[in-house]
Design goal:
Layout lengths: L1 H32 L4 E7 L6 H20 L8 E7 L4 H13 L6 E2 L4 H14 L3 E3 L6 H4 L4 E3 L4 H15 L4 E7 L3 H16 L3 E8 L7 H8 L5 E3 L4 H13 L6 E3 L7 H10 L3 E4 L8 H13 L7 H19 L5 H9 L4 E3 L2 E3 L11 E7 L2 E8 L2
Parallel strand pairs: 1-2, 1-3, 3-4, 4-5, 6-7, 6-8, 8-9, 9-10
Antiparallel strand pairs: 10-13, 11-12, 13-14
Bound molecules: phenylalanine.
């Protein structure tokens, strides 16, 4: 009796399994061959310690997608977006792009935010000759991977100069320390630029300590740096660690302002850092305090779609990346990856929410940066730096 019911349950289970497998196959097949829609892919950190990066980017991209589809898609065909989570892991990022291209058959890919993950996945896009647009990876090496890899943001040699200038000329600092994430291409690259530029301006780097993404105790490094009496500490990391570092720095009695780059941009920064991060400065791609009509309209549309949420820089860049991709798809004579690539490369004077975007011969964008001051949940606009 028992064995009969178990075997019937088993065969029922097998049947369901087989049906599910069939549906999965037919879904993929359908998505690969449906001539009535155009598929594009997106990969990002929708979960993990940089989850707001992936989520914000995706929200911005989806807003651009909605607008494009509402206006008739591309030459009458709707665009469908397939989003894959990489949990913030470089190896998962590469696997996601592999799957988007070989199984889902997307014609273009948007992603990633973090440079290390873009660097892991870009060779896959380049190998299959499918254009990839990173909305926000700022490490120079990303687009050097090949002629199918683009970005719509500025790069770290500029961002590092911006913060070095700000520390030297605005804050009048002469002794600054650095705390860098050695597991992140973004962090080490930006730290090196800052160091070189600040030193060139006559400043002195009095300490240069390191940590690894995922660390939670930074007291040893901070104690080292405190002994060097820096007037500011440059921490080109991501918000999760920076929030903790700020609190531990204050606990140790360090009063110097903290300085950072775009990796600080998250609503979680002030939640994690609380009062400890208040009054610190970072460079970013856009400011919500802009009075430019394009920006205020974007903020309004975004808030309407996402329950009153204010878009961060990543959302703005995700939106701009989508707009640029769709404009290229509209201009392209057909929906092949090659034609789309060629049109992305021709992007010129595109007025985005994050500024004017022209894709140069190195497939990068030359744009201005803003410096903001952390003030509780809002980041106050301080200044704009033009390249
Ligand atoms: N520029 C960062 C990197 O390359 C990513 C980032 C961009 C994070 C914008 C936050 C905001 O890794």
């Amino acid at each position: 009796m028992a064995s009969v019911s178990r075997s019937s349950r088993l065969s029922f289970g097998l049947l369901i399994g087989a049906m599910l497998a069939l549906t999965a196959v037919s879904c993929t097949k359908k998505s690969a061959t449906n001539a009535n829609e155009i598929l594009i892919g997106e990969y990002g950190s929708f979960t993990g310690s940089e989850a707001t990066f992936g989520q914000s980017t995706s929200e911005g991209l989806k807003l651009a997608l909605d607008e494009q589809n509402a206006a008739g898609g591309i030459k009458g065909k709707p665009i469908r977006l397939i989003s894959l989570d990489n949990q913030g892991k470089p190896e998962e990022a590469a696997a996601a792009v592999q799957r988007l291209i070989t199984q889902e058959r997307v014609v273009a890919v948007v992603g990633e935010v973090a440079s290390s993950r873009s660097l892991a996945a870009a060779p896959v896009a380049q190998q299959y000759k499918v254009p990839m647009i990173s909305p926000s990876s700022t490490n120079p090496k990303v687009t050097e991977v090949g002629d199918y890899i683009f970005r719509v943001c500025f790069i770290d040699p500029f961002q590092g100069l911006v913060m070095a200038k700000f520390a030297r000329n605005e804050l009048k600092n002469s002794k600054v320390a650095i705390l860098r994430d050695v597991k992140s291409d973004y962090s080490t690259g930006l730290a090196d630029v800052f160091k070189a530029e600040f030193t060139k301006m006559g400043g002195e780097i009095v300490g240069d300590e390191s940590y690894q993404s995922g660390d939670t105790d930074f007291k040893a490094q901070l104690t080292q740096l405190k002994g060097k009496k820096p007037e500011a500490i440059f921490i080109p990391g991501y918000y999760t660690e920076v929030g903790l570092i700020a609190r531990q720095a204050r606990q140790l009695g360090i009063k110097a302002p903290l300085l950072g780059g775009d990796g600080w941009d998250s609503e979680k920064l002030s939640e994690l850092g609380q009062d400890a991060i208040k009054g610190s400065y970072f460079s970013n791609h856009y400011t919500t305090e802009s009075t430019d009509k394009r920006v205020t309209e974007f903020i309004e549309k975004y808030r309407k779609k996402y329950n009153g949420k204010t878009p961060d820089g990543l959302a703005a860049l995700g939106y701009d990346a989508g707009k640029i991709l769709f404009a290229a798809m509209e201009r392209a004579p057909d929906a092949t990856s090659k034609s789309i690539r060629d049109e992305i490369a021709k992007t010129k004077d595109f007025t985005g929410v994050t500024g004017m975007i022209t894709i140069d011969a190195q497939r990068n964008a030359t744009k201005s940066a803003v410096v903001v001051r952390v003030d509780g949940k809002v980041n106050r606009y301080v200044t704009t730096i033009i390249p």
